[in-house]
Amino acid sequence: FVRMAWHSAGTYRLADGRGGAGAGQQRFAPLNSWPDNANLDKARRLLWPIKQKYGRKISWADLMILTGNVALESMGFKTFGFAGGRPDVWEPDENVYWGAESTWLGGDKRYSGERDLAKPLAAVQMGLIYVNPEGPNGNPDPLAAARDIRDTFARMAMDDEETVALIAGGHTFGKTHGAGDAALVGLEPEGGGIEDQGFGWISKHGSGFGGDAITSGLEVTWTTTPTKWSNNFFENLFGFEWELTKSPAGAHQWTAKNAEASIPHAHDPSKKLLPTMLTTDLSLRFDPAYEKISRRFLEHPEQFADAFARAWFKLTHRDMGPRSRYLGADVPAEVLVWQDPVPDVDHVLVDAQDVAALKAQVLASGLSIAELVSTAWASASTFRGGDKRGGANGARIRLAPQKDWEVNQPAQLAKVLGQLEAIQQAFNAAQQTSGRGKKISLADLIVLAGGAAVEAAAKKAGQDVTVSFTPGRTDASQAQTDVPSFEVMEPVADGFRNYVKPGQEGAVAELLIDRANQLTLTGPEMTVLVGGLRVLGGNVASSAAHGVFTQRPQTLSNDFFVNLLDMRTKWQKSASAPGVLEGVDRSGGTPKWTGTVADLVFGSNSQLRALAEVYGSSDAQAVFVQDFVKAWTKVMNLDRFDVA
Predict the structure, then answer these.
(1) Contacts by 234-238 with C-beta closer than 8 Å and gap 24+?
(2) Which fold has domain 352-488?
(3) CATH number belonging to domain 493-621
(4) Counting Cβ atoms within 10 Å, is residue 170 exposed (0-12), middle (13-18) or buried (19+)?
(5) Active site residue 7
(6) pTM over 0.70
(7) Same fold, 1-325 and 352-488
(8) Could you state, in order of their start, the residue ranges of all structural domains in the chain?
(9) pLDDT tens for each residue of 183-202
């Protein structure tokens, strides 16, 4: 049960926020058939009577994590807490890239150079959660294994102390299973017969279970009390010297030298075994940084217990997003920086009259429609549907590292934020003087200002629209912002703003689709947003003219689609600018437009062209504006889990 919960959560990776326990994906392929998840089908099946009893009152995703907590607590460990709120899905998430390898445990396509793991991957081999417990590619070298461990756990948002605590804490309990030849183990669940009813890894070795079980192929029990919390993992790790041996299944593992048989046999009370360890366990002793932490935990068991409790909570809740999504009586009161906290609302919120007045002030400030739209989009579009991080709440766009991201155009951003802050401060001061107690946060004002700009741009196109606005965002501090964990969120490309870092031009279309997926957008929503942002001036300065297929910029028109689909334009690749295409008059060759792959894909891809044709039709202007406003509002509110 502990391993089931761990592996449900352990697929999370920081680079793209995908994976993790938040949707119960371990029930589906490919995760249900990963070699590292061998025999967890039995653990999940044991939970069915509980899930059946409580039905919709608890999700599978919550139940698996709760079960891990209960298992730890049943062995005398005090957990940090538990939050429910993970909704189930009913099909596998096919948007997650797990690697290019086509065979289980393959790893040849994810590494380059000496040992550089491709982003956003975290695991070292296809079908593993973390690292190979025998060492890199089965090489039993604890120091080489430590390098893999550090890289992999960092990619899953864990520092060295959390890494040591998780490995040692997890290996305080239970054992690995490698009682015999792995060739006797049958296919994974997705490869099994219909009569197996979702069970996999059916073994022909002896009874196939208990003392005959084969899972990883390793046969290791770490402590003298494998069903009770203790500090014996570290006591054994440092208390013995170790020699390389092999399990009955032929896997590399380590056995204590000159030791007495002190480890209980899991299935025969009359037997005792020699202490054993994995190569990756010895990394915690022989890597200098890990060794320092491990010795401290050996000497201070209370620090180890606290570190494991906190790391386990982080592991199992990292992809849940803000605390406003947490449910239940066991939610810990302590606020943790990795939760990306924002202050509670401590003031009276603005009403409709205030919103109208603030919109008027923003539009009279001298800031352009393009500047206001760009700033609001930059603030909100950091949201990631995978781990529910990012978004406009907190106004972290004014803080490091986001304020310095190239895609956010720091000079322009500073100008816009400076003027919006002046409006905010004047409004709040006037409210304080009058005794009304109302305030507007900068996070709210950024979104409100973007909405005002969209309304103004629609009016220029001849349409009166209202962009809905719900106040209640607050402003995070720099101390509430974990800078390293936000640095990995900096876009290498953002097709909505026609931005791409040099060298990534060939992947622009794919990266646009990926960002739309992170923003939980449908195909039509992505399409209408790109078309609208182009004419509103949402491009970064380096691509200012690309894709702006209009003669009336900062007007919310459907010109992007009309001109993209104009049959009088012929497109050709630029001879001087990578990733840029030039549109010329088909008859005379006169230059008309320039665009990027993120623009032209809406004319070349058959599905996207079908959507572009909807918005490029002569009767589409009104529906284009309506759909843009709906999609814009959706993005602005993606992180508002505090409102219904």
Answers:
(1) 234/168, 234/294, 234/295, 234/297, 234/298, 234/304, 235/298, 236/275, 236/277, 237/168, 237/277, 237/281, 237/282, 237/284, 237/285, 237/294, 237/298, 238/285, 238/294, 238/295, 238/298
(2) Peroxidase; domain 1 (1.10.520)
(3) 1.10.420.10
(4) buried
(5) yes
(6) yes
(7) no
(8) 1-325, 352-488, 493-621
(9) 999 999 999 999 999 999 99
